[in-house]
Specification:
It is a single chain. This protein is of the alpha/beta class. It has two domains: 6-124, Response regulator (Rossmann fold), CATH 3.40.50.2300; 132-229, Arc Repressor Mutant, subunit A (Orthogonal Bundle), CATH 1.10.10.10. It has eight helices and eleven strands. It has helices at 14-26, 37-44, 63-73, 88-97, 109-124, 159-170, 178-184, 197-210, and strands at residues 6-10, 30-34, 51-55, 79-84, 101-105, 132-135, 139-142, 147-150, 153-156, 219-222, 226-229.
């Protein structure tokens, strides 16, 4: 018998937490929860959960610190952060720390479930992926192990960063738009009202890892079209 997908909800507001517990249980998930940051971090580091839904504002330990600690322990753990609608800095900071996605409060429960399904679908893999990606002579990437080297220096990637690299590598002969990346890499529906900063922030993180200087040679911006990965 296949086990249920396990979701950890770290949220201190009782009405939101209990509502999310009910919704995810209704959709067939095994649900765990925590009401403060310290308990949430302890449960998140147990390795028992397929997805962590993480509020930013929490007692004892905030969501940013939890996300950072999870990433130190597990680069592949899917994480969605829940943020206040007007807190743009929260969104940017959370993505830079390694969150896979974010959903702004107040949110549609249907939208949150769909975003969770998209993150889990990408984490589950299943598509044919290359074993390695070579960028010129100085960057080698080990796809399965979320790692690589640049000029013989070790690099570590999150799962989302690797998904982005793999998709750009598979389409390296053309520029890929932000909207296409949100659809194909993040799993968002086409035509949805999407925030493309998510892509830009992940591209900026990747460039800091794979580029030798401030002038990109591998991950290029094509004005008006999107991004292209130069393999040579």
């Amino acid at each position: 018998m296949n086990r249920k997908t396990r979701v950890l909800i770290v949220e201190d507001e009782p009405a939101i937490r209990e509502g999310l517990e009910d919704v995810f249980a209704y959709h067939g998930y095994e649900v765990d929860s925590a009401t403060d940051g310290e308990a949430g971090l302890h449960k998140a580091l147990s390795g028992r959960h397929d997805l962590v839904l993480l509020d930013v504002m929490l007692p004892l330990l905030d969501g940013f610190r939890i996300c950072e600690r999870i990433r130190e322990h597990d680069r592949a753990q899917p994480i969605i952060m829940l943020t206040a609608r007007t807190a743009d800095d929260d969104v940017i900071h959370g993505l830079r720390l390694g969150a896979d996605d974010y959903v702004s409060k107040p949110f549609s429960v249907t939208q949150l479930v769909l975003r969770a399904q998209a993150v889990l679908r990408r984490a589950g893999g299943g598509e044919t992926r290359p074993r390695t990606i070579a960028l010129g002579e100085d960057v080698s990437i080990d796809v399965a192990n979320l790692s690589g080297t640049r000029a013989q220096q070790d690099i570590a990637f999150t799962r989302r960063e690797m998904d982005l690299l793999v998709y750009l590598a598979a389409n390296h002969e053309r520029a890929v738009s932000r909207e296409e990346l949100l659809h194909k890499v993040w799993g968002h529906a086409r035509g949805a009202d999407l925030e493309t900063r998510t892509v830009d922030i992940h591209v900026a993180k990747l460039r800091r890892k794979i580029e030798a200087d401030a002038e990109p040679r591998h991950l290029l911006t094509v004005r008006g079209a999107g991004y292209r990965l130069a393999l040579q």
